[in-house]
Structures are given as structure tokens and as C-alpha cells.
TrEMBL record:
Domain of life: Bacteria
Record's protein name: DUF4279 domain-containing protein
InterPro entries attached to this UniProt entry: DUF4279
Length: 126
């Protein structure tokens, strides 16, 4: 099996409830959980979470970033407004099988992260 990559964009501890973030952005997230909300599968979250995930596969980082950005790009000003009262993070998740793949951050990802004050986190899992 080859290494696989996925990208998650997350907003943590937003001033608004995650459902309000969904309404404002007009994007259905992959995860939308308010602080302390009950979820059968998870323990009580310590913070609110609004998260959007790309598909997963063996393409380069830019391929998966384009999936995320195609949704966030048209509402970047709204994302920036929500991010002002939140912690925002772009996580590149790499499931490694053998050799660590090269990771090149596309300029559009670094520009977007800078605009909204997001961290870019790279997680490797074996």
C-alpha cells in the first residue's frame, strides 16, 4: 500500500456555535460539534469544532488542498471573520507506508493560512 494524504481544515473554539458557522459559510462540514455536546461515539468535546475534510489518496498535497479551497475560497472573507475569534488550523495528514513522502505546501495554502491566521500542521502516521 502506498502512503496516503488527506487535508483537514478546522475551526476550534469559535465565538459562534458551529451550526451558526455552517449557516454563515453555507458549507456543510464533515464535523460540527459544540463544546460539551453529547456524541455517542466520542467523549464530550472540550472545545467547539467545525471541520472540513478532503478525500484521501496518494496524490500530492496541492490536489487535496484544491478540494478544500474550492469550498472555502468563495467565502474567504467570512472564514476570516470567524477565524478572528477562533483557532484555525490546516492539517495535512500523511499515513506513511515505507518512505516519508515529500510535502510541498502550495503557495495558495500558505497565503490562505496567513490571511485567516491559521497554523499549518503536518501529521505523519505509520
Amino acid at each position: 500500500m502506498a502512503s496516503s494524504i488527506r487535508i483537514d481544515f478546522s475551526l476550534f473554539d469559535t465565538a459562534q456555535h458551529p451550526r451558526e458557522v455552517t449557516q454563515l459559510l453555507g458549507i456543510k462540514p464533515d464535523k460540527e460539534v459544540g463544546k460539551g455536546e453529547r456524541n455517542e461515539k466520542l467523549s464530550l468535546p472540550r472545545q467547539s469544532i467545525w471541520s472540513l475534510m478532503s478525500s484521501e489518496g496518494d496524490m500530492d498535497v496541492e490536489h487535496y488542498w484544491k478540494e478544500i479551497y474550492s469550498k472555502l475560497g468563495p467565502v474567504v472573507e467570512d472564514v476570516e471573520a470567524v477565524s478572528a475569534s477562533a483557532t484555525s488550523r490546516i492539517t495535512i495528514i500523511i499515513n506513511v507506508d515505507g518512505r516519508l513522502p515529500s510535502v510541498i505546501i502550495p503557495p495558495s495554502m500558505s497565503f490562505f493560512a496567513s490571511k485567516i491566521g491559521a497554523n499549518i500542521d503536518i501529521d505523519y502516521y505509520e
